[in-house]
Amino acid sequence: MSLAIGETASGAAPAEGAPLLELRGIKKYFPITAGVIRRRVGEVRAVDDVSFTLRRGETLGVVGESGCGKSTMGRVIMRIADPTDGRLILDGRDITQLRGGALRGLRRKFQMVFQDPYASLNPRMSVGSIVGEPMIVNASAPRREVPDRVAALLETVGLDANARLRYPHEFSGGQRQRIAIARALSLRPQLIVADEAVSALDVSIQAQILNLLADLRKEFGLSYVFISHNLAVVKHVSDRVAVMYLGRIVELAPKSLLYRTPLHPYTEALLSAAPEPKRHVSRERILLSGDVPSPAKPPSGCPFHTRCPKVMDVCREERPLLQEREPGQFVACHLY
Amino acid sequence: MAANAVSHASGVSRAPKSKSPLRLSIERFFHSPLAVAGLVMLVAIVFVTVFAPLFTHFSPSQPDIMNTDSPPTALHPLGTDGSGYDNLARVLYGGRVDLTVAFCAAMMTMVIGTLYGGVSGFFGGFIDTLMMRFVDVMLNFPFISLVLIVEAVFNTSSEWVLILIVGITAWPGPARLIRGVFLQLREQDYVVGARTVGCGNWRIILRHMLPNAMSFIIVLVSFQVAAYVGLDAALSYLGLGVPPNVASWGGILNTSTGYMSLRTEPYAWVPPAVMIVLTILSVNFIGDGLRDAFDPQTRT
């Protein structure tokens, strides 16, 4: 399954262990406007001051409920959405302000796999054109070599090389997701942002795609930001897991620590709500009252204080910072 | 790349037969009886007008002064008008003017409308707001007055003047519709995906958005054609169509508007009227057929 696609994108890779991706205080606010003159009356704080680093070869899982800002964060990383504030550093280079051609030139380093494989492939292009297009627009391969490379890529993701002559509508959801992965791989990226990459697929197919992603990670030394609402899926693929609530990371820890000894009350509640595969292990369920507050009117202090079972007075006043409370385990909570 | 791929495939194992979405749409189109009937009818109409000399030896601009105001005879199957022009010749040759105006005007409005609406929808935001306000202004542009002014100033009226005027006044409608389509396409994952793999704006517009807007545009073209077939007839009523010495369906209808001719000379005005109706009908059938053929909901 070896794939001969040129040299790696970066000429001189920085030292091993240096972060591949760093988010520093990333904010993404969407303005709420009113009236014909589009007066700004408020803002939706989709992502509110998120910072983390992603090491080379690492998979960071991002979990949270719908609307917690995890997809928006993925779009900000991909530079599809511009951050309102903060800095985005990829491979030692600040890419927050890059635009136009300079940004396009760097895009080969970070690629995305979308949630819905029925929407992410252009229905009017053949699979060969879809997978080959990134190489052509980036001139990362001589044009006449593109068909062979496409064939090799399709085989790498477990499809027949002849698939390139066919069109997306002839494939199933799982196969389409493989095509999307082949497209993302075609530029030999270092980072892949997978935004709910398996949640639109059947459970049996999910496992196949997750295993494929794990294999590719080993083979190509990829790093993933794996966004999902599914705790079991995130547990399966991640090295570290970030839990998001209302646009903020409330806990960030290695997988084993987070699933075994969650610190943040929200993480605890989230884990207790997930079905437990082992029957004899029964966990006490923590039921949260109330709804997620609107990100347009986030609560003062800790965003979770309105629903937290262990709420204290300080939680309403002061916003907790994400701090390391156990080795490697970061949590934003006044309890610790 | 295609040639390379094909040779590669035939060498080892036959690739399964694969049909492009366009090919599937064409097949669906030909499975619709009404659409095929419309197509056959339109082809027939275009044929008799283009090859008019095969069907009559009279010229639409040479009066037969020995037979003015003749009812249908063996010599003049549809009779002649008061000046001795052969009605059949004028109907056949006249179609050229009406069809040219309809097709060219539709094409021109659609090309301008697609460019304008496409750019507006692709960029969105402030550019879009600005461009759409201009569309609002143009939608209220007094079309008839412009025709009148241009014809007065240049002292001419021809089908090309008509096409030009329609082209520069009628694009805002299609532009607004196409802008809506592009706005919608812009948010599609495959368009966002094209950006993330490094495609530039033009490549995204031409390779990703336009092909997916094409079905909509083609359908819109067909309805535009239908709308402009009757245009010459409408303008002729106001005396603003093509000059009277040029034969056109609208022109013939206009000369037969008198009470007496309507009653006593149906052979003069019924044929062009029927031709206009048939053209509009067939173009609409084709348009409906195309819409169904391109609609992904009706996948066969």
What does this structure look like?
The complex is a heterodimer of chains A (336) and B (300). By secondary structure, chain A is an alpha/beta fold. Chain A folds into 2 domains: 1-8 and 56-84 and 95-238, P-loop containing nucleotide triphosphate hydrolases (Rossmann fold, 3-Layer(aba) Sandwich); 264-336, no CATH class. Chain A has helices at residues 70-77, 100-106, 127-137, 146-156, 173-185, 203-220, 231-237, 255-260, 265-273, 313-317, and strands at 19-34, 39-55, 59-63, 85-90, 93-94, 110-113, 191-195, 223-227, 240-245, 248-254, 323-326, 329-331. In chain A, strands 6-7-8-3-9-10-12-11 form an 8-stranded mixed sheet, sandwiched between helices. In chain A, helix 5 (173-185) packs parallel to helix 6. Mean pLDDT of chain A is 86; it is low at 1-15. Chain B is an all-alpha fold and 300 residues long. Chain B has a single domain (22-53, 89-298), classed as MetI-like fold (Orthogonal Bundle), CATH 1.10.3720. Chain B is built from 14 helices and no strands. Chain B has helices at 2-11, 21-30, 33-50, 87-123, 125-139, 143-154, 159-170, 172-186, 189-196, 201-229, 231-237, 249-255, 259-264, 266-294. In chain B, helix 12 packs antiparallel against helix 14. The longest helix of chain B has 37 residues, at 87-123. The A-B interface holds A 78, 80, 104-105, 107-108, 111-112, 114-116, 119-126, 128, 132-134, 137-138, 143-144, 146-147, 151, 162, 164-167, 169-170, 180, 183, 186-187 and B 1, 4-6, 8-9, 13, 15-16, 18-22, 188-190, 192-200, 203, 207-208, 211-212, 296, 299.
Short overview:
The complex is a heterodimer of chains A (336) and B (300). Chain A has 336 residues and is an alpha/beta fold.
CATH architecture identity of chain B: Orthogonal Bundle
Strand content of chain B: under 5%
Number of domains of chain A: 2
- First CA to last CA of chain B: what distance? 29 Å
Radius of gyration of chain B: 24 Å
